[in-house]
Amino acid sequence: MNEKRRSMEAQRGGSVTPCCGVKTDVATEGHGVDPHLHRHPEAACLRVQGIQVVRAKFQRKAITTILRAQDLGPVGVSEATAQAQPSSQMGAQDLAQQPGETLACGAKPKVAGWLPRRQQASMAGRGATLLPLTLQLFCLALVVGPTGGGVVSTERPRLARTYEQQQQFPTHHSSAPTGAPLEERLDRLEAEVVGLREQNKDLQARVRQLEACECHPVTPPCWALGRAWPEGARWEPDTCTACLCQEGTSHCSPKLGLPQCPGCSHKGQPYSEGETFSPDACTTCQCLDRAVTCTQKPCPVGPCPEPGTCCPHCEPGCEYEGKSYEEGTHFLSTSNPCLRCSCLRSLVRCVPMTCPPSPCPEPVRRPGHCCPACLGCSEGGLHWEHGQEQAPLGDPCRICKCLEGHLQCHQRECASLCPYPARPLPGTCCPVCDGCFLNGREYSSGEPVVSGDACSHCRCTNGSIQCEPLPCPSVPCRHPGRLPGQCCPVCHGCEYQGHQYGNQETFRPQESGRCSRCLCQAGEVSCEEQECPVTPCALSDSGPQLCSACVLDGEEFPDGVQWEPDSHPCTTCSCRDGIPVCGALICPLVPCEHPTHLPGACCPSCERCTYRGQVYANGQNFTDAASPCHTCHCQDGTVSCSLVECPPTTCARPQSSPGQCCPSCPDCVLEKQVFVDGQRFSHPGDPCQECQCQEGQAHCQPRACPPAPCAHPLPGTCCYNDCTGCAFAGKEYPNGADFAHPSDPCRLCRCLSGHVQCLARRCPPQSCPKPVLPPGECCPQCPTSPASCPQSGGAPPVGHLEPFSPPDQPCHRCLCLHGSASCQRLPCPPAPCTHPRQGPCCPACDGCLYQGKELVSGESFPSPSVPCHVCLCWEGSVSCQPKACTPAPCPFPARGDCCPACDGCEYLGESYLSSQEFQDPREPCSICTCLRGFVTCRRRPCESPGCSHPLTSSGHCCPTCHGCLYHGVTAASTETFPDPLAPTCSICICQEGSVSCQKKPCPPAACPHPSPGPCSCPVCLSCTLWDRQHQDGEEFEGPTGSCERCRCQAGQVTCVQLQCPPLPCPLQVTEQGACCPRCRGCLARGEEHPEGSSWVPPDDPCSSCMCHEGVVTCARIQCVSSCAQPHQGPGDCCPRCSGCEHEGRKYEPGESFHPGADPCEVCICELQPEGPPSLRCHRRQCPSLVGCPLSQLLPPGPQHCCPTCAEALSNCTEGLLGSELAPPNPCYTCHCQDLTWLCVHRACPELHCPPSEYHTRPGSCCPVCLDCVVEAEDRRVADGQSWRDPSNPCVTCSCHRGHVECQLEECQALVCPEGWVQGHEADSCCQRCQAPSPSCEHQGQEVASGEHWAVDACTSCSCVAGTVRCQSQRCPLFSCGPDEVPALSPGSCCPRCLPRPASCMAFGDPHYRTFDGRLLHFQGSCSYVLAKDCHGGDFSVQVTNDDRGRRGVSWTQEVSVLLEGVSVRLLQGQEVTVDGHPVTLPFLRESLLYVELRGSTVILHAQPGLQVLWDGQSQVEVRVPGSYRGQTCGLCGNFNGFTQDDLQAPSGLLLPTEAAFGNSWQVPEEPGPGRPCVKGREVDPCRAAGYRGRREANARCAVLKSAPFARCHAVVAPEPFFAACVYDLCACGPGPSADSCLCDALEAYASHCRQAGVTPVWRSPTLCVVGCPLDRGFVFDECGPPCPRTCFNRHVPLGQLATHCVRPCVPGCQCPAGLVEHEAHCIPPEDCPPVQLTGDPPPSTRPSPTRG
Question: Residue 233, exposed/middle/buried by CB under 10 A (0-12, 13-18, 19+)?
Fold first, then answer.
């Protein structure tokens, strides 16, 4: 049984080992020993604790035995044992102090608690001696341990055996009387006690021996191949691996030296193939292909736990979940957002987050967040949306932001923008600059402020105190003085050279070296130079009396005189003994601390103050430039400064920022949140830390955790204080949960409100005599037959001693022994391949394992060890071969790493780099160039040798002039040779590299007209005449005009005269250069027409001309109609008849006929371009019979139309040129020109009378009337009567036989006497000199009487007799719809309604706010399309950007507007050009555009409602009406109401970035040199600016969110403009440019606010101030009237003036209320010059701007 128990204990890992040579077996049967001794074998070596445990159990067993021996029955035993605690740690005290019992040695026990009630009386009466003995035995059992210690023997006590024997024979004792054998029992008990004492002595000796020894832990075995291997055992899992068991761990290493076993050896240690190891802390090695390669471990770039020997320097930090974190960083776990982690001392500590109770009824859980969040926050009747920021009611100095249902509040930061700000307004927090607070008193802006200087007047101006000297009246003297107690100088005294003198006081100038005396008299100072008395000279001993004198610069000065030379104004001289002594003028001390050197003065004076390099006027107040916290005052040359009173601070070391007057406590920035000094707050990233802002540093420490009211609380947000569950042994359980004890499965625990209660499991009674305790079970069980072994996967169990292979481990063979399986790995046969992969059990050849990588059979891969090789895995083996290369796409590729590449050249065995030049190896005189694998060679360039035919000698590359090479012939210098081009005709000579050739002489020819032969020598084989060559026997014409025929014969030419043939025509002409005459037709307008031809003159298509016997007759075509409904088409002179049919006969095209009896009427059938042919009928024209006598006229015969002449007509000869002849027909007039009679039909004048009154007189051609009818005046005028046109006095008309003739009177140049003017008299055409009329004055210039000009589009004025008369057009009342606004067309007065416009703006560096409201940042410095009409092409606005010297950012440089072919450029400084020409504003090109200047803003108005506003620096705004919705494109977007698709390229695609979008709208550069153009890219200037730059930019831009813009926040969101402002200030950097960048951003936001109907008043004397000419009465207005009131429109009612003016308001200088603008001054209306007002102007009135 003991051996079986030891085997079971060994299987549980709890065998008891010998200790100090004493073998201790702890039995479990019947002794109730805690199983803890079996699970922990080291407890077998009995120490004090173990002894107490075993002693307690021995005592309990002894008491039980005694009670049984006293026949107390099983009830008492069960009660006693039931009251004992089942824990293995129960001690003697537990037994001695049972509930309700107290038992101590020597004390009287309470027997009632130990004996049954039925025996208590008998025990009390008859066994008086039994109780002391029993107590003695019990105390003995208790004293055994403390006196000497003791152990439990392996042998059972004899007392117990006696009890068991009595139990085996119960009948023997039951028959005896109860009290008879009592003495015998006592004897036996005494004997047992004696034996126990002896046994106790033996036990004490054994305990002392055990206490003297040491315990050694049992070395556990190693598990491998399904079995346990003892310490030091060796085994081989396969043929290439050997293993060793050391300290319970299997150490396996490869076998080296075997060819079939890969592996490596490094420093005596074996390593398997592919294994990675580190021989030291700084090296990493790997075994590959039986070779070890080692590399140094790289040092981490980010944080590392701690520096080591490899990386002595490393940043502290942590790496967690693949990310690096800096030391002190708090973060959320990426895998579990409910874990809040922190990196402290390079260790990551994560604590679970506890979600606070949600203040809203339906919180929403968002992805990536742990706790559900609320969509909004509510507090005090206010509701915040998520992310919204606003101040709570009653506390405007707190700003609260709603984040996930919680309000996070902080104090509002107030920027000090002025030195004396007024107290905050009710309901606001920050002081404002619209007033002043000084010395405890409040002053409104503009209110006088009491100062200590009675001579200065101080006033509060927007938070600053500005003092000016009191105005003093002008005095009539030049040197007025100041009396004590008075501020203004008066003429009762004098101030001269900085000194005060009384009236009638005489004084000597203190700054003059001369002897002058001055007198102050009524504010005037008069000085005169005093003459020095003549000093008598001393008598000379040797001669006459002599006086010494000094001469300087040509002037003589007596001895002893002082003077100031004119050439040196600050020098004083004196004459001493005839020698001039000069020196610098010694200035007297001035009674002030900061005197000033006035221009032209030698010495400083106290009239002004010079302080820190600046000059200030007397009485001026100013701020110290070096210390802005000091206010200074200049008084009589002395500057006194006083410190601005600052409020107290709450920190020990307040700080002052640059430009800040008063120091302030620095804020703390933690987790991108700002906290004010002294504020206590929870750490934003770790709620378990509490922080306080002190001196700009956030000091944080863990929160103090109070003790929990329970023993095992759950972890809360920061502390373990949650008693709603239990945290026990590393796990958490809800309240009321039952769970098994984590270390004792035989105990069951329960969680009760943070407390854990554990109780032992109750075991049922067993029916077998010897139950056993199976391993891992809590209760003993009856033994069964050898158990079978279960299998996984639902397989049937395996019987005892049955071998099997587990389904999940096919590579193992197992044996079932008593229900447990012992397994061993099966051996593997050698694989038939070189690189098998690891299969399920053994290496398999269906894949490859190569250098640690598993490959599929058939997979190819580049060789990791041999370059340029490709390997193939095939059936478990890897074979590698060189990589196959594709042909290179170049003829001379270079040798690459693996394959030829075209990044160089391989030429004739040598390698060259791309773009490298080298000498041609085959041709030394050639240079080759390698370019991407191509080689091009050219000859080496040579200098010009200086001769025409140089020779290249052998061995040289370049030619020289030492010989000649001429057409392939080489000749030495001075050598003569035949010309290779003409060897027989010329000879050449070489002279210093140049060849000159000469022709050989020719023999003379034997004929007069030889031709050139060989060598161009004359021969008589042909003829040369008049530079033409003729062959022998050839006949040809003579020279032009000679009328000869010639023949060539053997170089001789013979010619004969030609005869002209007769001509049949009477008119003949011989042309110039012709030999014979020809028949001539008619010449008309330089063009000849053949005889009998007719034509249409080009200037009159309805006329016809004809040529007859040299006479040209022209007349208009007379039309004849042959049909009832003729039609006349365009271009027809006469109407046509459709169809070629007349009186039933159809005519073909080209046929003609006479439609009636008149032979002169003829019709012709003609084809038409479209449709059927048609008939054209007209009267035939007859030629003019010029010069035919009437007696010779023959009338036309039958069927003939025209008469004829019986004799020849007269010819137009040279003698008749220019003469006129009347033909028989009176309607014709003939002129002789160009040797041709030109007869033209007369044109009859238009008659102004009814056709019924026409009559033609005999012998005349044209009809006439007796009088004329004037239709315009509806009256008749007699023949010969004249009259003047009533609408134009310069036109005079007269009536001539029914025809009205009008003439325009021409006026002569008129010169009037001086002072006279030109003017019209009544009913006169020309001007006359008139006496002068009074002129008018306009804008400072004289305007002549009668001159007109325009004040604006609605008002025009003229000067009439010295009075200005103005007319104003009044527009009708109108109203626009809700989606419309009024708009003006260029040059018009009255507006019209257009759809509501949209605005796009470019501002800053630059930012683009699209029509749909999206804000873009784009930094390209090219030209781009800003806005364009992409559908109708009405307009295009382009911008050109410039970087202004800063890389990465840009600003708008100029704007170009294209309108109907007109280009308008808006340049820097408000300059404007139109089509490249500069123009003066205002400029008007009527109905197209109007450009004006309002303040500093250039406004362009274009025709369909387009407006472009340009500030002349960098801000441009484009406004288009709503009719362009969805039709625009460019950087301003498509104007469709959606911001999501504003990044649309010209192709229509949406681009991912703003830089790509901006670059897509770049305008192509024009050819030619231009400025550099850089494409835009994504930049973040605030990243480069650093933390201080970002903080400064945020602080300065905070004014956007402050009180001056508060009213605008509700209509225009400030966040995009705030971001743009911060962006700009980061890009501008520190310096003066930052102020302009800030003002640009603020003005852009203010402009959008004005468009939304809110006009913020945000400028101050220290913020973007705009200077206006105060001396002319102007003041600054953020949104003044765009059409100011002037002297010329002051009569127009305000409402009507506003109706006319629909221009946008712009900030600028305006006249205050009650004043009008006139000639750039603000004056009262009553001071306006006299202007006479009239009604509406006539339509002809035009405005006066310059016109294009």
Answer: middle
| Nearest alpha-carbon partner for 446 in 424, 464, 471 | 464
686: left (phi over 0), alpha (psi -120 to 50) or beta: beta
For 336, other C-beta atoms within 10 Å of its C-beta total 14
- The DSSP H or E segment spanning 997 is strand 994-999
Structure tokens at 337: 């957002």
Beta-sheet pairing, 490-496 with 499-502: antiparallel
Q: Please report which residue ranges of 537-664 form alpha helices under DSSP H.
A: none
Q: CA-CA distance, 776 to 744, in Å (whole number)?
A: 10
Phi/psi for 1481 (5° steps) reads -90, 145
**Do the Cβ atoms of 739 and 756 come closer than 8 Å?**
no
User: How far apart, in whole angstroms, are the C-alpha atoms of residue 833 and residue 842?
Assistant: 13
Q: What does the alpha-carbon distance between residue 653 and residue 1471 come to, in Å, rounded to a whole number? A: 53
Task: Give the integer Cα–Cα distance in Å for 37 and 33.
Answer: 8
Collapse the DSSP code of 436 into the 3-class scheme (helix H, G, I; strand E, B; otherwise coil) and give the result: strand
Count other Cβ atoms within 10 Å, centred on residue 552: 14
Alpha-carbon gap, residue 950 to 966, rounded angstroms: 9
pLDDT of 43 above 70: no
Residue 38 is given by DSSP the state: H
pLDDT digits (tens, 9 = 90+) for 1329-1356: 877 767 787 766 777 777 777 766 677 7
E strand or H helix that includes residue 287: strand 283-288
Categorize the per-residue pLDDT at 964 as very low, low, confident or very high, splitting at 50, 70 and 90: very high
Q: Taking Cα atoms as reference points, which of 1717, 1638, 1736, 1632 lies closest to residue 1677? A: 1717
Residue tagged 């049949």 (tokens): 1064
Angle at Cα 1343 formed by Cα 1342 and Cα 1348, nearest 5°?
A: 160
Residue 1587 above 70 pLDDT? yes
Residues across the chain: 1748
CA atoms in the 13 A half-sphere facing the CB of 637: 17
Task: Classify each residue of 1204-1224 as buried b or exposed e, where b means 16 or more C-beta atoms within 10 Å of its C-beta.
Answer: ebeeebbbbeeebeeeebebe
Q: How far apart are CA 409 and CA 676, in angstroms?
A: 11
């010309």: which residue's tokens? 979
Tokens of 288: 């590959």
Calculate ∠ Cα 96-99-103, nearest 5°: 30
1353 C-beta neighbours (distance < 10 Å), count: 24
Summarize the confidence of residues 97-114 as an average pLDDT: 36
pLDDT exceeds 90 at position 1016 = no
- Residue 867 near residue 897, CB atoms below 8 Å: yes
Provide, rounded to the nearest whole percent, the portion of the chain with pLDDT above 90: 5
From the CB of residue 825, how many other CB atoms can be counted at a distance below 10 Å? 17
| Interatomic CA distance for residues 1230 and 1223, integer angstroms | 7
